[in-house]
Structure formats: structure tokens, C-alpha cells
Amino acid sequence: MSENLYINKSNEVYDAIVIGSGISGGWAAKEFCERGLKTLMIERGRVVEHQKDYIGENKAPWQQPLRTKVDNLLVKEQHQIQQQCYAFTDATKHFFGNDKDLPYTTAKNTNFTWIRANQLGGKSLLWHRQSYRLGDYDFAANKSDGFGNDWPIRHKDIDKWYSHVEKHAGISGSKDNLENLPDGEFLPPFEMNSPEKVLQAKFAELYPDRPLIMGRTAHLTKPTKLHLSQGRVQCQARDECQAGCSFGSYFSTQSSTLPAAAATNNLHIAPNSVVHSLIYDEKTNRVKGVRIIDNDDLSEREYFAKVVFVCASTIGSTQILMNSISKKFPNGIANSSGVLGHYLMDHNYNAGASGDIEGFEDEIDKGRRPTGLIMPNFYYKPDAKRNFLRGYALAGRAYREGWQSIQHQDGLGVEYKNKLKQAGKWRFGLYAQGEMLPRFENKMSLHPTLKDKWGMPQIEFDCHFSDNETNMMIDAAEQAEKMLKAVGLNNVQSRVMHGPPGLAIHELGTARMGRDAKTSILNAYNQSHDIPNLFVTDGASFCSSAVQNPSLTFMALTVRAVDYCVKEMNAKRI
Amino acid sequence: MTKDQKTLTDESKRKFVKGLALLVGSTAATAFLTTKSMSVALAHTIESEKTIAVEPLTDGKVFSLNQLKQLKSICAIVIPKTDTLGAAEVNTHGFIDNQLFHCYDKSAQEKAKQLLSLINVVAEKVFSQSFIALKQTQQFELLTELDLGIKNFSSTERQDFKLLKQLICFGYYTSEVGASQELRYLAVPGGYKGSIAYEKTDASWGSQGLYY
Ligand SMILES: Cc1cc2nc3c(=O)[nH]c(=O)nc-3n(C[C@H](O)[C@H](O)[C@H](O)COP(=O)(O)OP(=O)(O)OC[C@H]3O[C@@H](n4cnc5c(N)ncnc54)[C@H](O)[C@@H]3O)c2cc1C
Ligand code: SF4
After folding, report:
1. How close is the Cα of A297 to the center of ligand 1, in Å?
2. Do A51 and B37 touch (CB under 8 A)?
3. Which of these, A39, A73, A357, B144, is most buried using a 10 Å CB contact count?
4. Helix %, strand %, coil % for chain A, to 5?
């Protein structure tokens, strides 16, 4: 690791600037550094060091002043929005954004939950690590039903880049040989418990086209030499990942991409550097660098490079582009098409069903498996008979109830205490992860007057689920209920909820790829149609949401874009 | 340190060492585990040596001294001492006072106080004594009626008591005794096993990762 990894002021013209240090930025930096390019990673937040700064890690509940809960006052002042995330607890709260400093607005009658993690590592520290490839039906979805523009790529274009990131990150899963959920380079899958195995077999019998498989997840079930050499060891099944993991057993920037990048001595990091906008040179039609507002003292500085990769997360990246105004680009840099900010998507997690499983009383599982099961999208082929387009996956797991469920029962005293001590009945549920259509009217824009404390215009969201998403959730609840009953569960209950977009934390779109420069921002390599040395490789580039958790695809798109960019630089086209 | 607490400390130390042995056995790369991750895991045992003061001596943040005493006897009835300590012995009443103050709103705090008053009012009505002055069997009888919403208690009052019971359970099963003695606590499970034998007399898992 180079001695001065962290920099503040610099006049150097770097080979590459990478904005953001989350999942996408970490990969961009690693790939540039390993190709010998001097790289500056710019991060708006503070430094979080692997192991040292995981201050909530491995604390038993009784060692936490509020037994895992967070003080009202703190929530009210700083985390009104962030506290809506299931992973917001006393052990993780310092990795979530401060809502007081990061205000945003939503258009009338709409709502959007924007979860943020502004520090070195970004949301890679907080993610749930579910990792899936997109299939060809996903890449072709827009084309086949006409919603959104056609993805300029198919699975074969990104296949080897998926493999590249899977091997380094470490993805566990089973080879399932499914038509629209391509297998990857997997470490062994986590085990199923007995009821899950039985349910899997019953589903296979009753619904042969709806397999139930082990969740694919970025955990080292069996670390390779490469992982061990990075100081990453086997996952211990604590399921406390979001507090940070000193074992390095799940993929994060800190555990995986950052050490690889730093090992090359080509990496520098500028923390506490809020990118305000990109510096554009109209004469050469190139981006020259970035304008920074210091996170702490609000002073200004600039950094320069030959190419700029914007990896500040979907909304963050588009915010920077929109705030980069010039004579040539009065509506945001690289926005000659006018679609910047449009086609905002998330996933829809608003339906599910659950029930009781009879039997299996003489066994229990051991350890806390950090993933559940998944029934991949079984509606991936278009079908006009359904009253909605696209489809959903269903996620679930079997577990034995504990005191949290049993406590609601009547009773007191020794008998009650003994009941609470025992493991309760087995339960299983299926919860929807639905696709959201790309629609022009779902958008983010810069607020005309309101600014944040760094002088950045605030974001205004205007985004809502349409009837298509609602109809899909109604179907998901019905299907889940029907299937759970069919495989023999008791007391099956289903529900449809009406949460706003945002809380699936899979923001996508707003600077989409496409073949046509008139209707998209980026080409098939995540390169700006308008400005050759500008790339956006995170979720902003998505044309459709598919149903899969998207971050593995951010990784693959990013490394592919770096490979292309370096070749273009070598060929002197950039 | 009382004897109970001493055994508790030894017990969790043993568990931790066992967990660590598992860990070391399970991977060749322990050399890479820094002292940080070790000391992080070790933190469990250091904390547990603190003695728990359980007798209310002053007003709390939400409850008065008398209410705290009353709450303590309710804790003792709901989750009593058996071969492990009960909710009162691990200061669940103190926990509830603190938790209500920091993590709940004013209306929840008021509801809890009203419930305590109600319990006293009914105790006076039926036994002509305050709740803490009752015999344990009488306390048990009265709280059972409340728990079922029968006789002197309405179904709304029953619901309010269920909320208090939830706080008692949360406080107890997230305490060191509740999570690691009454239940089984695995700080570092060493991997996931889909199935191990379980008998009805076995304790369930007290360790739940981040989510309690
Ligand atoms: C609780 C939770 C669970 C999740 N589960 C999953 C899952 O199971 N599977 C999955 O695929 N995805 C999951 N996600 C989503 C996943 O975390 C994100 O998709 C992913 O981290 C996005 O990567 P990114 O690099 O684009 O953005 P981020 O990881 O958010 O990183 C962006 C970085 O850019 C920085 N930045 C932003 N603006 C600026 C600026 N102006 N100047 C400088 N720096 C800036 C930020 O501070 C941040 O560090 C989950 C997210 C959360 C919060
Ligand atoms: S489950 Fe695995 S990755 Fe998560 S905290 Fe535990 S050891 Fe780390």
C-alpha cells in the first residue's frame, strides 16, 4: 500500500478519476490500478478502515445501551428517512447518511425513500449481498413490450465480466441451469435446512417451472487462495454483516476491491471531497476534472484526470451530471438527448405470504445463514394473458420461531418462561421482488432553489408505482398464497402493501444506456455518447430494472467499461 | 460479584473460547485475523463482569420509585427465577424505564404508567392492598386476569399489558442471562448447519445477529 494513500490537494493530472468508493467505484479503481493507470478515487464521506472502524461489530445486545435500538432523539434529528431501512440499528447507524445534512424533496402526492451511505465503501458495507446475473429475457424485455429503450447489450457481451467479478468477489450459489438466471463462478452454496429441502422437492413436483434455489450471495463459503491472500476468511454465519465484518467474509470495497487497488501503488484516495460538478472543456469536448467542496470546511478545490468515471450511485451520479452546466450543456452535461434524470426505477417489494410448517420438531438449524432462498422470476417470458407486464422473484426461508413470536401468547410465570425457552414452530414465507417499468414521467431533477449545506441543488423526486406494479403485487400475493397452500403449509396468510419506491434500495436508471444517442445518455460501454472521456457505470445506466438485485451487474458493467476505456486510451481515441 | 454472575462470566468465557477454537479449526488463514477481530469477539466477557443493581432506589426516567418497585414485582411474576435468574434479577424494570424514555414516545410512556395505576386500583379493589403488598399467588392471579382481559379488565387493557409483556421479554432475552444462560448464545457460530438434533428440553438460540 502506498504511503500517502489519502490525499487532499493535488495538481497532478491523474490517468483516471473515479467518483465514489461504493460497489461500482471500488471496482473501477481496482481495474484501472491493475492496468497501471494512476487513479484518484474521490469520496464525499469520511474514511472507514477495514476492521478498525467497524465499531458496532460483534457486540451482544446487552453490550449496547439500548439493546440494538437507536435513540429517538438521534433518529428524529438525523435519521428520519434512514431509519426506515431494516438494517438501521445501533450497530450500523454510523454507516447511514445524515438526513439533516442531506435533505431532498418529493413532488406532490409522491414519495421516495432515499437510503444513503456516504463514506468510504458507500453502500457496499450495508448491502445484503444477494448477487444475480441478468438473463437474456431481461436484456430483451424493453424491446419486446416497448416500455423503455432496448438494452444495447445481451448476456454474452458481459458474461466474461460477470465471471471476472464473481471470482474476485466470491459469490456462493448452486449451479441451477436455469434459462433466464445464468449460473456464475460459484463458491459452494449455503446449506438448506430440512423443511427447505422438503419444500424444494414439493415445489419441483407441483411447479416444475418454478424452482426454489439457494440464494446467491457474496459470501466466502469456501475462500479461494486469492481470498485468503487478501486476508479474507470463511464466513462464520453470524449474520451481522452490516455492522462490518473483520473476517472480510462478505464482499465490500474494504474487504475486496480496495486492498487489490491499493496493492498496485497506483491508487490515491481523496476522502471528504464532495464532487460539486465536472469541469468541461468545450474546445476539446473533454471532461478535464472535477470541482470539489470540502465535506468538513466547505472550501473548494479541483482535481484533474484524462478520464472520469462517475460511480456515485444512481442518484448521486445523475445529480453530479445535472449540476455540471455549460454553454453547450445547459441542462446537464452529456444530456444532449434530454433524458437525463428520467426513467427512474426501483424494485417493488410490496407483497408476500407466509405460513406454518408441520413437523420437524426434533431438529433446528445452527448458525445464522446470511441468505435465504429464491424462487427466480417465473414470468420472464412475456404473456398477454397476465394483466401486467414483466414479473417478480419470490424470496423466503424456513426458520423456527423464537421468543419474539411466542411472547405474544397468553401466559405468565414458569410455564410461560419455559415456553419461551423452547424453539417454536417452523415457518416459511415467500416475499415478492417485482420489476418496475421504466417510465419517462418517473424522474429526479434539481430543485430550482433549495440547496444543501455544500451548495449542491437538492434533488426533487417525482416517482410512483403505476397500476402495472400494483397489479403485479396483487398477483404475487395470490400466487404465493396458492403455492404455499399447495405445498402443505397451514395458516397461510398473504398481503399486499403500498410502500413507495426507494426502500428496495435498488435505484436504477436516470442516465440510461442505449444504441441511439438521441434517446440515451450512454453507449453500450457506459461511455457518454456526447463526451468520449466520461463514463457512468453504476445503476444510473440501467435500461430496465429486471427483478434481480442489481449490484453484481454494476460490478460487471464497471469492469467491462474500464477495459474498453483503457483500450480506447491506448488507441488514442480518448 | 454474586455467585450467579460469576458462573455466568465463566460460562460465557467458555463459550467464547469454544467458538474461537471452532473458528481456528475451520480455516487455515487465521494468521490474517488481526488482533482487532479477536478483541472484538473478546469484548463479550469483559462486559459481563459488571454487577447488576436491581433494587430501585430513586425515581427513574419515566417511572417513580414506587412504580419501579411495582414494575419489578410484575417482572418477577411474568418471567420468574427458575434454575436461571428471572426478569427482576437482571433489572428488566430498569431496562424498561430507560428504553421507554429513549426509544418510545410520550404516549407509550403514559400508557405504561396508566397500566401500573390500573393494576394498583384493581389490587386495592379486590384485595384492599397495593400490588406490591400482595402475596405472589395473588399477584399472579391478578395479572393472569389482566393477561386474559377478564373480570376486572377490558380487552384494551389486555392489549396494553401485552405491550408491557413484550418489553419485559425484550429486556430479558436481550440481557446476558436471558440470551446466553436461559437461551443459547453463539457469538461466532463458525458456519451454518441446516439441521442439528433438538429436544423439547433444549434451549432455543438467544443470538440473533443484528435483529432483535
Ligand atoms: C440495506 C441494503 C441492502 C441491500 N441489499 C442488496 C442486495 O442484496 N443485492 C444488491 O445487489 N444490492 C443491494 N443493495 C443495494 C446496493 O448496496 C447498491 O446497489 C450498491 O451499493 C450501489 O453501488 P454504487 O457504487 O453504485 O453506490 P454506493 O455503494 O452507494 O456508493 C456510492 C459512493 O459515492 C459517494 N458519492 C455520492 N455522491 C458523491 C459526490 N457528489 N461526490 C463524491 N462522492 C459521492 C457516496 O458517498 C458513496 O460512497 C442494498 C442496499 C442496502 C442499503
Ligand atoms: S455472516 Fe459471514 S460475512 Fe456476515 S458478519 Fe458473519 S462472518 Fe462476516
Report:
1. 25
2. yes
3. A39
4. 25, 20, 50
pLDDT digits (tens, 9 = 90+) for A89-109: 999 999 999 999 999 999 999
Cβ separation B78–A413 shorter than 8 A: yes
pTM of the model: 0.94
List all residues of chain B from 61 to 90 with a beta carbon under 8 Å from chain A: 77-80, 82, 86
Domains of chain A: 3-129+251-346+440-464+504-570 (3.50.50.60), 171-239+349-434+466-496 (no CATH)
Does the pLDDT of residue B12 top 80, yes or no?
A: no
Q: Is the pLDDT of residue B26 over 80?
A: no
The residues, ordered by sequence, that sit 6+ positions from B150 with a Cβ below 8 Å of its Cβ are none
CA of A433 to the centre of ligand 2 (A): 24
> Looking at chain B from residue 14 to 43, which residues have their Cβ under 8 Å from any Cβ of chain A?
23, 26-30, 32-34, 36-37, 40-41, 43
Sign of CA dihedral A321, A327, A330, A334: negative
Q: Per-residue DSSP letters for A130-171?
A: B--PPPHHHHHHHHHH-SSPPPS--HHHHHHHHHHHHHHHTE
Chain-centroid distance of CA A111 in Å reads 20
* pLDDT one-digit tens code per residue, A421-442: 999 999 999 999 999 999 999 9
Q: How far, in Å, from the CA of A565 to the mean position of ligand 2?
A: 35
In angstroms, rounded to a whole number, what is the distance separating the alpha carbons of residues A218 and A256?
11
- Mark out the alpha helices in A409-508 (DSSP H runs): 413-421, 467-486
Q: Kind and range of the H or E element at B194?
A: strand B193-197
CA–CA separation, A88 and A123 (whole Å): 12
Chain B residues near residue A52 by CB distance under 8 angstroms: 36
Kindly identify which residue of chain A lies nearest to residue B19, measuring between CA atoms.
Answer: A236
The model's pLDDT over A330-353, given as tens digits with 9 standing for 90+, comes to: 999 999 999 999 999 999 999 999
The ligand with the least distance to the CA atom of A250 is 2
Nearest CA in chain B to A221: B191
CA dihedral A391, A393, A394, A397 (to 10 degrees): 180
**Chain B residues with CB-CB distance to A359 below 8 A:** none
Residue A359: other Cβ atoms inside 10 A: 12
Is some CB atom of chain A closer than 8 A to the CB atom of B198?
yes
Q: Atom 49 of ligand 1 has which residue's CA nearest to it?
A: A122
Q: Which helix (H) or strand (E) holds B192?
A: none
What pLDDT, on the 0 to 100 scale, is given for residue B53?
78
Position with higher pLDDT, A3 vs A389: A389
Q: Look at residue A369 and give its three-state secondary structure.
A: coil
- What is the CB neighbour count within 10 angstroms for residue A456? 21
Which of A19, A551, A553, A558 has most ligand 1 atoms within 8 Å of its beta carbon, as the pocket-test mutant?
A551
What DSSP element (H or E) covers A380? Answer: none
- Residue A225: strand, helix, or coil: helix
Residue A206 has pLDDT above 60, yes or no: yes
CA distances from A38 to A13, A33, A351, A394, A532 (A): 9, 6, 47, 44, 19
Please state, rounded to an integer, the average pLDDT across all residues of chain A: 97
Alpha carbon distance A215, A202 (integer Å):
18
The Cα–Cα gap between A423 and A400 comes to 6
- In the reported structure, the alpha carbon of residue A239 is separated from the centroid of ligand 2 by a whole-number distance in angstroms of 5
A257 and A170 Cβ atoms separated by less than 8 Å? no
The vertex-A338 CA angle with A337 and A343, nearest 5°, equals: 105
Residue type, B183: L
Q: Which among B187, B203, B210 has the least Cβ separation from residue A242?
A: B210
Lowest mean per-residue pLDDT among A484-488, B3-7, B88-92, B114-118: B3-7
